Fold this sequence. Notes:
By secondary structure, the chain is α/β, with parallel strands linked by helices.
Amino acid sequence: xxxxxxxxxxxxxxxxxxxxxxxxxxxxxxxxxxxxxxxxxxxxxxxxxxxxxxxxxxxxxxxxxxxxxxxxxxxxxxxxxxxxxxxxxxxxxxxxxxxxxxxxxxxxxxxxxxxxxxxxxxxxxxxxxxxxxxxxxxxxxxxxxxxxxxxxxxxxxxxxxxxxxxxxxxxxxxxxxxxxxxxxxxxxxxxxxxxxxxxxxxxxxxxxxxxxxxxxxxxxxxxxxxxxxxxxxxxxx
Length: 237
Protein backbone atom coordinates (compact mmCIF):
# COMPACT_ATOMS: atom_id res chain seq x y z
CA UNK A 1 0.00 0.00 0.00
CA UNK A 2 1.48 3.28 -1.03
CA UNK A 3 1.76 6.82 0.08
CA UNK A 4 -1.57 8.47 0.76
CA UNK A 5 -3.28 5.23 1.71
CA UNK A 6 -6.39 5.71 3.84
CA UNK A 7 -6.66 2.35 5.59
CA UNK A 8 -3.43 1.96 7.54
CA UNK A 9 -1.49 4.33 9.75
CA UNK A 10 1.50 6.46 8.90
CA UNK A 11 3.78 4.08 10.81
CA UNK A 12 5.95 2.00 8.48
CA UNK A 13 4.76 -1.53 7.87
CA UNK A 14 6.89 -4.57 8.64
CA UNK A 15 7.63 -7.69 6.55
CA UNK A 16 10.46 -6.66 4.32
CA UNK A 17 8.81 -3.45 3.14
CA UNK A 18 8.59 0.02 4.64
CA UNK A 19 5.45 1.33 3.03
CA UNK A 20 3.70 4.31 4.63
CA UNK A 21 0.08 3.67 5.53
CA UNK A 22 -2.97 5.49 7.02
CA UNK A 23 -5.57 4.54 9.66
CA UNK A 24 -9.17 3.68 8.75
CA UNK A 25 -11.65 6.47 8.39
CA UNK A 26 -15.43 6.39 8.48
CA UNK A 27 -15.64 9.48 6.27
CA UNK A 28 -15.63 9.19 2.48
CA UNK A 29 -13.04 11.07 0.50
CA UNK A 30 -12.65 12.14 -3.10
CA UNK A 31 -8.90 12.54 -2.80
CA UNK A 32 -7.07 10.14 -5.15
CA UNK A 33 -4.87 7.55 -3.44
CA UNK A 34 -3.03 4.42 -4.50
CA UNK A 35 -5.85 2.45 -2.90
CA UNK A 36 -8.21 3.82 -5.56
CA UNK A 37 -6.43 1.56 -8.05
CA UNK A 38 -6.38 -1.19 -5.44
CA UNK A 39 -10.16 -1.28 -4.90
CA UNK A 40 -11.84 0.34 -7.92
CA UNK A 41 -14.44 -2.04 -9.42
CA UNK A 42 -13.34 -4.77 -6.99
CA UNK A 43 -15.63 -6.94 -4.87
CA UNK A 44 -15.19 -6.09 -1.19
CA UNK A 45 -16.71 -7.65 1.94
CA UNK A 46 -16.81 -5.87 5.29
CA UNK A 47 -17.24 -8.26 8.22
CA UNK A 48 -18.75 -7.02 11.47
CA UNK A 49 -19.91 -3.86 9.70
CA UNK A 50 -22.78 -2.90 11.98
CA UNK A 51 -22.43 0.80 11.09
CA UNK A 52 -20.59 0.13 7.85
CA UNK A 53 -17.68 2.54 8.23
CA UNK A 54 -15.27 0.48 6.17
CA UNK A 55 -17.98 -0.20 3.60
CA UNK A 56 -18.33 3.53 3.07
CA UNK A 57 -14.56 3.88 2.79
CA UNK A 58 -14.33 1.09 0.20
CA UNK A 59 -17.25 2.51 -1.81
CA UNK A 60 -15.52 5.91 -1.86
CA UNK A 61 -12.68 4.19 -3.72
CA UNK A 62 -15.04 2.71 -6.30
CA UNK A 63 -15.47 -0.81 -4.90
CA UNK A 64 -18.63 -2.89 -5.03
CA UNK A 65 -19.21 -3.62 -1.36
CA UNK A 66 -21.12 -6.14 0.73
CA UNK A 67 -21.66 -4.62 4.18
CA UNK A 68 -22.27 -7.50 6.57
CA UNK A 69 -22.71 -8.45 10.19
CA UNK A 70 -24.00 -11.48 12.03
CA UNK A 71 -27.45 -9.99 11.50
CA UNK A 72 -28.17 -7.93 8.39
CA UNK A 73 -26.86 -4.42 9.22
CA UNK A 74 -28.99 -2.54 6.68
CA UNK A 75 -31.33 -1.00 9.25
CA UNK A 76 -28.42 0.67 11.06
CA UNK A 77 -25.90 1.20 8.26
CA UNK A 78 -28.17 2.34 5.42
CA UNK A 79 -29.20 5.69 7.02
CA UNK A 80 -25.50 6.50 7.50
CA UNK A 81 -24.56 5.47 3.96
CA UNK A 82 -27.54 7.23 2.43
CA UNK A 83 -26.03 10.58 3.40
CA UNK A 84 -23.72 9.86 0.45
CA UNK A 85 -26.19 8.50 -2.15
CA UNK A 86 -23.62 8.07 -4.92
CA UNK A 87 -21.59 5.83 -2.62
CA UNK A 88 -24.59 4.02 -1.16
CA UNK A 89 -25.45 2.73 -4.65
CA UNK A 90 -22.28 0.66 -4.50
CA UNK A 91 -23.21 -1.02 -1.19
CA UNK A 92 -25.46 -4.01 -0.51
CA UNK A 93 -26.27 -5.57 2.86
CA UNK A 94 -26.19 -9.17 4.05
CA UNK A 95 -26.07 -11.31 7.15
CA UNK A 96 -22.69 -13.06 7.11
CA UNK A 97 -21.30 -15.22 9.89
CA UNK A 98 -17.52 -14.76 9.96
CA UNK A 99 -17.19 -18.39 11.07
CA UNK A 100 -19.25 -19.68 8.15
CA UNK A 101 -18.88 -17.36 5.15
CA UNK A 102 -21.16 -18.51 2.34
CA UNK A 103 -18.81 -17.44 -0.46
CA UNK A 104 -15.86 -19.15 -2.09
CA UNK A 105 -13.17 -17.50 -4.27
CA UNK A 106 -15.43 -14.47 -4.65
CA UNK A 107 -13.97 -11.35 -3.03
CA UNK A 108 -10.94 -9.33 -4.04
CA UNK A 109 -10.73 -7.76 -0.57
CA UNK A 110 -12.17 -8.50 2.86
CA UNK A 111 -11.87 -5.97 5.69
CA UNK A 112 -12.88 -5.62 9.31
CA UNK A 113 -12.19 -3.79 12.56
CA UNK A 114 -12.19 -5.38 16.03
CA UNK A 115 -13.92 -8.62 15.04
CA UNK A 116 -11.28 -11.16 16.07
CA UNK A 117 -11.50 -10.00 19.70
CA UNK A 118 -15.17 -10.98 19.68
CA UNK A 119 -14.83 -14.19 17.69
CA UNK A 120 -11.79 -15.29 19.70
CA UNK A 121 -13.84 -15.28 22.89
CA UNK A 122 -16.14 -18.05 21.59
CA UNK A 123 -13.58 -20.87 21.45
CA UNK A 124 -9.81 -21.13 21.51
CA UNK A 125 -9.78 -22.08 17.82
CA UNK A 126 -12.42 -19.58 16.62
CA UNK A 127 -9.91 -17.00 15.39
CA UNK A 128 -8.18 -19.61 13.25
CA UNK A 129 -11.54 -20.76 11.88
CA UNK A 130 -12.48 -17.18 10.96
CA UNK A 131 -9.22 -16.64 9.08
CA UNK A 132 -9.69 -19.96 7.31
CA UNK A 133 -13.15 -18.85 6.19
CA UNK A 134 -11.77 -15.52 4.95
CA UNK A 135 -9.06 -17.37 3.04
CA UNK A 136 -11.74 -19.51 1.37
CA UNK A 137 -13.89 -16.51 0.41
CA UNK A 138 -11.00 -14.57 -1.17
CA UNK A 139 -9.90 -14.95 -4.77
CA UNK A 140 -6.33 -15.99 -5.49
CA UNK A 141 -4.01 -13.19 -4.34
CA UNK A 142 -6.98 -11.61 -2.56
CA UNK A 143 -6.38 -9.10 0.22
CA UNK A 144 -7.34 -9.00 3.87
CA UNK A 145 -7.22 -5.57 5.55
CA UNK A 146 -7.92 -5.33 9.26
CA UNK A 147 -7.33 -3.45 12.50
CA UNK A 148 -7.45 -5.36 15.77
CA UNK A 149 -6.87 -4.69 19.46
CA UNK A 150 -3.94 -6.38 21.16
CA UNK A 151 -3.32 -7.08 24.83
CA UNK A 152 -0.65 -4.41 25.01
CA UNK A 153 1.03 -4.46 28.41
CA UNK A 154 -0.30 -5.99 31.62
CA UNK A 155 -1.14 -2.43 32.68
CA UNK A 156 -3.34 -1.99 29.58
CA UNK A 157 -5.25 -5.14 30.47
CA UNK A 158 -5.62 -4.06 34.11
CA UNK A 159 -7.00 -0.67 33.07
CA UNK A 160 -9.47 -2.33 30.69
CA UNK A 161 -10.80 -4.58 33.41
CA UNK A 162 -10.74 -2.05 36.21
CA UNK A 163 -12.04 1.13 34.57
CA UNK A 164 -13.43 0.53 31.10
CA UNK A 165 -15.74 -2.39 31.79
CA UNK A 166 -15.60 -3.45 28.18
CA UNK A 167 -18.94 -4.13 26.56
CA UNK A 168 -18.35 -7.86 26.93
CA UNK A 169 -15.91 -9.02 29.61
CA UNK A 170 -15.29 -12.17 27.55
CA UNK A 171 -13.55 -10.30 24.71
CA UNK A 172 -10.32 -12.06 23.81
CA UNK A 173 -7.31 -9.82 23.24
CA UNK A 174 -4.53 -11.45 21.23
CA UNK A 175 -0.88 -11.04 22.08
CA UNK A 176 1.18 -9.57 19.24
CA UNK A 177 3.15 -12.75 18.48
CA UNK A 178 0.03 -14.87 18.74
CA UNK A 179 -1.94 -12.86 16.19
CA UNK A 180 1.00 -12.46 13.82
CA UNK A 181 1.67 -16.20 13.79
CA UNK A 182 -2.02 -17.01 13.37
CA UNK A 183 -2.34 -14.78 10.30
CA UNK A 184 0.89 -16.14 8.87
CA UNK A 185 -0.72 -19.55 8.45
CA UNK A 186 -2.92 -18.18 5.66
CA UNK A 187 -1.46 -14.86 4.50
CA UNK A 188 1.69 -12.95 3.65
CA UNK A 189 1.61 -9.88 5.89
CA UNK A 190 2.59 -6.20 5.83
CA UNK A 191 1.78 -5.00 9.33
CA UNK A 192 2.41 -2.29 11.86
CA UNK A 193 1.64 -1.92 15.55
CA UNK A 194 0.66 1.44 17.05
CA UNK A 195 -0.74 2.96 20.22
CA UNK A 196 0.40 2.98 23.82
CA UNK A 197 -0.75 6.06 25.72
CA UNK A 198 -3.93 6.56 23.67
CA UNK A 199 -5.63 3.69 25.47
CA UNK A 200 -5.67 5.72 28.69
CA UNK A 201 -7.64 8.70 27.39
CA UNK A 202 -10.77 9.46 29.43
CA UNK A 203 -12.56 11.31 26.62
CA UNK A 204 -12.09 12.09 22.93
CA UNK A 205 -9.97 15.18 23.61
CA UNK A 206 -7.49 13.37 25.85
CA UNK A 207 -7.46 10.36 23.51
CA UNK A 208 -6.49 12.62 20.61
CA UNK A 209 -3.79 14.33 22.68
CA UNK A 210 -2.32 11.01 23.79
CA UNK A 211 -2.56 9.63 20.26
CA UNK A 212 -0.33 12.50 19.07
CA UNK A 213 2.19 11.54 21.74
CA UNK A 214 2.05 7.95 20.51
CA UNK A 215 2.69 9.03 16.92
CA UNK A 216 5.55 11.33 17.85
CA UNK A 217 7.26 9.12 20.41
CA UNK A 218 5.94 5.75 21.53
CA UNK A 219 5.04 4.20 18.16
CA UNK A 220 8.65 4.60 17.07
CA UNK A 221 10.39 3.57 20.26
CA UNK A 222 8.42 0.89 22.09
CA UNK A 223 8.51 -2.88 21.45
CA UNK A 224 5.75 -4.42 19.33
CA UNK A 225 4.19 -6.25 22.27
CA UNK A 226 3.82 -3.06 24.32
CA UNK A 227 1.44 -1.52 21.80
CA UNK A 228 -2.27 -2.26 21.64
CA UNK A 229 -3.33 -1.84 17.99
CA UNK A 230 -2.38 -4.26 15.21
CA UNK A 231 -2.90 -3.07 11.61
CA UNK A 232 -2.42 -5.65 8.88
CA UNK A 233 -2.45 -5.73 5.08
CA UNK A 234 -2.42 -9.39 4.03
CA UNK A 235 -2.18 -11.25 0.74
CA UNK A 236 -3.73 -14.71 0.41
CA UNK A 237 -1.17 -17.49 0.17
